[in-house]
Amino acid sequence: MPVATKLKKTSNEIPTLVRVDPSQPGETQANIHTRWHPEIPCVATVPVGKPFRVECLDYSGSQVHNDDNADDIVHLDHDSDHHLSGPFSVPGSMPGDVLEIEILDVTPFPDHNWGYCVTAPGLGSLDDEDKETLVTKSIWDFYGNETSSRHVPHVAFQGRPHAGVIGTAPSKKLLEHWVKRESDLEVATAGKAGCSLPQPKGAYVGQDLDDELREKIYREGARTSPGREHGGNIDIGLATRGSRMYLPVYIPGASLSVGDTHFCQSDGEPTTAIEMAGIVTLRVNIIPQGVQQLCMKSPMYRTSPSEPIYRDRLCFTGLSVDKDGNQTNQSGLLAYRNAAFQAIEYLISFGYTREQAYILLSAAPIDSRVVATANRPNFVVSIGLPTEIFDFDILPRVNGITDDKKRVIQGPALPSVRVNGKVADGFNHEH
Amino acid sequence: MPVATKLKKTSNEIPTLVRVDPSQPGETQANIHTRWHPEIPCVATVPVGKPFRVECLDYSGSQVHNDDNADDIVHLDHDSDHHLSGPFSVPGSMPGDVLEIEILDVTPFPDHNWGYCVTAPGLGSLDDEDKETLVTKSIWDFYGNETSSRHVPHVAFQGRPHAGVIGTAPSKKLLEHWVKRESDLEVATAGKAGCSLPQPKGAYVGQDLDDELREKIYREGARTSPGREHGGNIDIGLATRGSRMYLPVYIPGASLSVGDTHFCQSDGEPTTAIEMAGIVTLRVNIIPQGVQQLCMKSPMYRTSPSEPIYRDRLCFTGLSVDKDGNQTNQSGLLAYRNAAFQAIEYLISFGYTREQAYILLSAAPIDSRVVATANRPNFVVSIGLPTEIFDFDILPRVNGITDDKKRVIQGPALPSVRVNGKVADGFNHEH
Amino acid sequence: MPVATKLKKTSNEIPTLVRVDPSQPGETQANIHTRWHPEIPCVATVPVGKPFRVECLDYSGSQVHNDDNADDIVHLDHDSDHHLSGPFSVPGSMPGDVLEIEILDVTPFPDHNWGYCVTAPGLGSLDDEDKETLVTKSIWDFYGNETSSRHVPHVAFQGRPHAGVIGTAPSKKLLEHWVKRESDLEVATAGKAGCSLPQPKGAYVGQDLDDELREKIYREGARTSPGREHGGNIDIGLATRGSRMYLPVYIPGASLSVGDTHFCQSDGEPTTAIEMAGIVTLRVNIIPQGVQQLCMKSPMYRTSPSEPIYRDRLCFTGLSVDKDGNQTNQSGLLAYRNAAFQAIEYLISFGYTREQAYILLSAAPIDSRVVATANRPNFVVSIGLPTEIFDFDILPRVNGITDDKKRVIQGPALPSVRVNGKVADGFNHEH
Amino acid sequence: MPVATKLKKTSNEIPTLVRVDPSQPGETQANIHTRWHPEIPCVATVPVGKPFRVECLDYSGSQVHNDDNADDIVHLDHDSDHHLSGPFSVPGSMPGDVLEIEILDVTPFPDHNWGYCVTAPGLGSLDDEDKETLVTKSIWDFYGNETSSRHVPHVAFQGRPHAGVIGTAPSKKLLEHWVKRESDLEVATAGKAGCSLPQPKGAYVGQDLDDELREKIYREGARTSPGREHGGNIDIGLATRGSRMYLPVYIPGASLSVGDTHFCQSDGEPTTAIEMAGIVTLRVNIIPQGVQQLCMKSPMYRTSPSEPIYRDRLCFTGLSVDKDGNQTNQSGLLAYRNAAFQAIEYLISFGYTREQAYILLSAAPIDSRVVATANRPNFVVSIGLPTEIFDFDILPRVNGITDDKKRVIQGPALPSVRVNGKVADGFNHEH
């Protein structure tokens, strides 16, 4: 008769620390917040060293609908920006520690298999004073790890799902520093930098708070738009399942928040990623005094063996010379923009609209490299389109791109709105 | 009795259009030039559609020696900068066409299996006013496609050999435009941009020329430091064997030049690559009216299936905030520098010197991505160290980096020279 | 006022054609079958060109439990073998057509995040008369796309989820051919080949059938163990999300079935994969007369850009020489076994048990190549262990594997049962 | 005045241990041998831990010429088979040790940029009694790491150069064992196994030997065709630059030999690789008592980050059922052959000849996997054609492969000879 080894039964049920409803407005839901502040109470405690799940709204807090009409985009409220889940307390973590956050998984909700991209004047890094950007919305359907859009035909790709925002709470001092440095820039640039400064409008914390604390957080809380040294909206397209993120701790318990789930995003993300509501599975470890140990000044991450790789890429370079032919002193943003504009023109030559091309540069698994930084005065960036994601041949041929190719792109138009050359109300950034 | 198919014998002997001697100074050799100018006479004609070879000096024109002494670096003449082979006439190519240049191979000379890296104050993109950069030289030995250095221990990697410079000659008009835009920037920045403007000092053309033309080219010729819309010193680390480059033609016959061969270079190349003399095998095709067909404004390239891939990478991010805590308006260069400084500090924690770390960031097959560009006011860049190239474990562990790890790095010192906090004479860039 | 493009709302809700309960025995559930037969009625119709989901039981039909006791394995009933979902009718498909089946996704059930591996005497391809294989069970927990096992310590890896079985129904003629050829082999080998021939024991069809048809199917239906020209249990570890499978159609409507979902499996799968209940998302297209067009004799597939790649591998070769030193005439199975045994011995040298090593060879994302086939009389196979999946260094070093390394492996024992050197009842294969 | 660090000058000149002339017959050259025997005197001593070069003839010893006529193939002498360089003494290595051999580089001779493939009846693993294989020769030109053939149009690929043969000398006892086991098989199969047994015809050792020893070696020396436990003709296509090989030592000093350089070879190599004369750069380390430490029974290797990867592959499976429909008991060779035949038929459907397709399967960087080994009675193998190496679209489409596609292949015919259904004299294997 067999003699079996007897061990106690164990289980790997993964707890879900926060649940959300992606069909309801973010401002009606508990455990959601839209600002960074050290005094936002934690909603749950992380089981250190063990996996847990967090459900997340899309960044807009469910303002965008799966239809073929861009009206919701015209009226999108950006004052709230990222609707984050949490914060979560990491017991035992102290200022100066580093959290090692294993990104075990990021998926859409099973019954919510779609996301969206947005273009709009004033949104993103490719504003072009000569060419108006329409307000558009494109809906991307998810089929497993593949996505395609009825609004951007002839392209399909494997995603690299990730959380655009993952960050620890700033200390009071760090928060003040953020506000000061961004306010200073706003002043110095007469508002052209487009920094989003603290304001109660759009502030939201789903937790029960006494009025005084709520008012304080709404007044002081840092906006979530930029990535900062704590992580936040750092939008690392490679931080997909199987990767790890390293973030510093500023207050006891860390107060980790996560949100802004993306199905896919390019390196560089010039407008939006494929924004989606999603479910994030994480495991958090603590590296004591990691800030010093790792010489950490801003987030670190480790890549994943599961990242989809599109190896054959057609790449466009950009230099730091502006469109009027003026040389800048190594402007990296301009180099990026130039590479992107060249890729967009190239895609337009196949029949895509400017906005469809812009979306592709932002949503697809596109590789963007810093090419050269030491050859003054030019900073060089390249952007690589994976050739395999198109169902037609995008490669240059000795005969160039024929007229025949221009007829390639057909399909329903991209839902769009022209707003008379003016920035739509919902957008808080101006040229 | 067997009946054999009879066809004429063919041959694939690959002609070498230019030969050079990597042991002799560039200025003593024919077929070498150090400026961009449309009137530099072509030295050979490209067999369109067929492979050919070009031998190239290292960028310095053989000024650097394989020894353990950095004196040659202290006295390095940068006025000549890149010693290029060519130019080559591409018969049939006309302004507006695009050259498709297949990079069939880039190798060192068989009996010259080494290259070098340089650091120096004023050179590269990581000047740091708080920390003096020593003048250093490191010698890298090549063992097939592997390289390692007796001056930077505990690391070895596969190279991705490429030509740092490959470009077509500018038209007279384009040349004038380059000079004007760079002069304007020099004026606007009171010289801080560090542009290298035309000057006879360091100019060289190895061809026979009448005095008047020589004087004209030396006076007008554009310096080779920056990459520009024609290609030139665009330093694309991914443009290794198996890749293709697309460059515009500005004058009849194109006048293609190539040089600045590298054994390996990071994305971003903050100081020098592993500079070497090398042999480049190319095949050139013409895309008629390609500039219009491909919407080309600056070079394009296509990646290679032969690029070595180090998939597991530890990545460091950088934001566009300066070291005093001031927020810039999306400075890409600053973001890159911040990511690089963080990686350097991390490497120093294992025992490398600052200069060894700096060299690694520039010489190794490091991936550098533009991460996010739309999250004002921060531009985010990341730099990824391949974990496999070190012979010790560089990954963060829950116990951090122990003191034990700090003893990892041992070996001969990096040849270096301290120049009393002053820029060495040979360097033409100032802070 | 903005003018919006108005298009009708669309939806991508993905229909689930079959639902199953992974906590209940397969034989109690509708829409499950355990034999191949053309007369098994279809349970649903595939929406050609559109995605759909199919829920699948693990191959055993829920016989295995998540605990630390191998008793369920000792009593495992293999007569039923694969519990398949379907069959599904593909409208419009005719004999001679080929189905292009896009494997859009394969995932575990959200609340069933575990799978198991099995070893047992008589199971798998690594029987070794000199060394008894214990009956063991290991439980693998899934954390996103990562898996690890409390029973096989010091290893974790990204999965490549796939359906081990996907196949079309045979025609009556093909079914008869299968039975004949396998019966002939059973006779020729006096039962040593271990073919599973048709038998009512273990046969199951969940659909309502009249008694006569049920009896016929149970009597005639082909066993599901071997992969065959229709696909079936072809166990392609690379057929993960983003891949495509091409299968021939033998009867009108194709009658496609799917099941045997795996979280991960090596190339070669010498014992079981990480067996799990799972949800498969597919999209099916028809290639008319594809059998002729594609010259198809057995299944084809196309790889996926989403396959996790572990690039650094330590590989073991195997030759077709048996352990007594006898040369076989290019036995591929023997070459595979020899490579596997060598890898197993190597893993044992770090402290793993023989069964743990055996499981790793079968469950992990291991690359196995046919190396050389033309060098008579040796057929050479290699098996590559990805170095990154271990949390210790498995590479050979100049000092070899030290005794210190042998202490690496610690952790709870593998649940196992010794069955007195006899094959456990549940297993239908004998040595 | 600067103070420089002074260190002694060092050099990395890589010694070449053996030079050969690829334009002269192997049998006229020193340092070449065509048999395995422990008493062949070493021709040079390996500098342990330091790189060295070895020049190698092609396997045939320069019998094949770069022309368009297959007559040399008809008369190819296979009795000599592999013309190996060496052997080399590895000082300090003792029986039971393992050599770690770093494959630093494998390249063609600079002025000998071509290789060849051969098909012939009786050669390779795809003999097909229904279809005669013509004697053919195809010449492949090398352009850097790219190759293409004037005889096999519409395809070009990056190579993975390697040495097909690398092995240590057998001990006397091992040599006797090899001969016995292969002779036994020849007897058991009545010669059908096609083993090449020792014979003086074709034996050659370029070293000075006294007559008695020469006669002994020629009489006893093992033939080089099969890979064996010492390595030898193990033909690992992945063992390209950057990889490492691990081989056991059987006699003091190891007596390492290398040869049979290939520009590229598929996994499985059913006929010849792209055979070339080449230069191999190696570095050898000794793992004392490595055979025991590494549990080594046959060679091990480690993959290279420089291996070209073609990620998108169309794969063909093969089962162990013969063409008459008879089921074998997991014949791996048959499974491989079936997958190969299906791929060949597929390629023929685009217009390639049978021999051109056969060559592609053997010469191109094709991935071949052992898919499944435990699903009795079928062993499953797959062969994956990289889609990117063709200049037309090889993927199945919903409309199948149109007649239009069949017109794709054009170009000069493959040099070939029909030998009246008879095996050409030069081939020593019979059906």
UniProtKB/TrEMBL annotation, chains A, B, C, D:
Query: Gene3D superfamilies in the record, alphabetically?
Result: Acetamidase/Formamidase-like domains (2.60.120.580)
Query: Which InterPro entries does the record associate with it?
Result: FmdA_AmdA
Protein's UniProt name? Formamidase
User: Which species is listed as the source?
Assistant: Kwoniella shivajii
